[in-house]
Amino acid sequence: MKNQENSQSIKEFLCWRENLYHGVKTRKETVIELVDALSSNSTATSVVELSEHPLFRRDYNSLYKGIQEFLPHQNDDNYSQQVDYLLEAASQTIPTPVCRHFHLFGIDTTPCPRPFSATLADKTFIHYPNPIKGNKPISIGHSYSVICALPERIATGNVPWAVPLLGERVPSLEKATNIGNKQLEKIFKTASFSGDKLSVLVADSFYSQRDFIGEQVKQKNLITLTRIRSNRVFYRQFIRKENQAITSGHPRWYGDKFDLKDEKTWHEPTEVSQSIFTTRKGRQLTLTISGWNQMLMKGTQNYKMNRYPFTLMQITVTDEIGNVIWKPMWLIVIGSRREELSLIDCYESYRQRYDMEHLFRFGKQKLLMTAYSTPDVEHEENWFKLTLIAYVNLWAARNLAVVLPHAWEQYLKTNKSVKITPSLVQRDFYRIISTLGTMAKSPKRRGYSTGRIKGYKKNTKNSSSSYQKREQKFSKITKSWHLRQRTLSIISIFQ
Q: What is the distance between the alpha carbons of residues 150 and 105, in angstroms, rounded to a whole number?
């Protein structure tokens, strides 16, 4: 039985490798070896150090050429075709759900700070958490919108795997929600996720905006589940009573007000679900999920939200005495097939959204996601996509990995039921590739380059200032400040 499972895992891994090999059109061998070196990286702290990895058999200059020519130019007609092929290859690694009747996806943005890249174009202010108390959580750089498939915990062994499908940079003049809409439209056109199969999308409160939800409700087989802030105001859907007279004028859409921060406006929930769970420290807590059906939010001219009722959920956790431990969490569930999900299904689905945070942390710490310094925006985007492919590479090899503990990791030696995490797969990936082999052909030495022509001077790039939103407002403030300082200086002269 074990041999059958192992052979099946090898077959699935080689299938992914073959699809990846055929999906790369330019500098195929270089890209494959670069992805393998990144997938088994344990010592490199910069991108150029990957050229010294045993799995990368080429020179360091080939490494940079592989990153630069990995994808064609975005204006090229072959760009979208190649991205779609790689998306389909990554989608085929997602197992079919067994315990649940839907595919689960997550969407989020991650920052890529580049404060010292003077010549890098299209920089803007991004949210970047700062551990120092008193400092503002901002930086200068780019942000990337990532959509992941969140597999079942049975398939992952209760390990927080989040398989990235698409990763696109958010331009400074565009909103992340617009980029997310385009990405989701592309994902639901793939063969793996198209059809009548139900899909659920989970996102944080940033994606509770109307320009995002209003686009996703158009998908018939999609349920969007987002967190919302606790100061939002919603309304009950107005349903006319049988004995109520029909009045002339515009039909009424909205009923009673439902203010999240005012309990007096709340009506009785449609459904309540409770469960008791025990923490690791042996503390018993009570989870209460309350749901209100047929709720509405105010719409806009472009998005008539009165046509799309949703389910409002409140999640509270109390102790043995009944005291609320954490601040209640509010969720909305919107979609034409939302009744197919129970309150517990919605809660468990949203909990799995936090697996994406593990992906971003692992990508930045182990896969050098934000370590590539380049003045070219497209090269940075190519590198970001390569790091996501390296993560899928580890995901496809998870069933082939064995635990290789360090001398100081005694808990891994004694514990036989160790969960195979991305870090453990990365540690064993070199052995896997050495055993199964690689499709990349050996490099052919072509001698040394003649170098640049004598007297050649490389053109220097101009500095690129970061895009600052509300620039006009800040300029007015600056002008008024200068005018005030000038007035004070004149007054001091005559005193």
A: 5
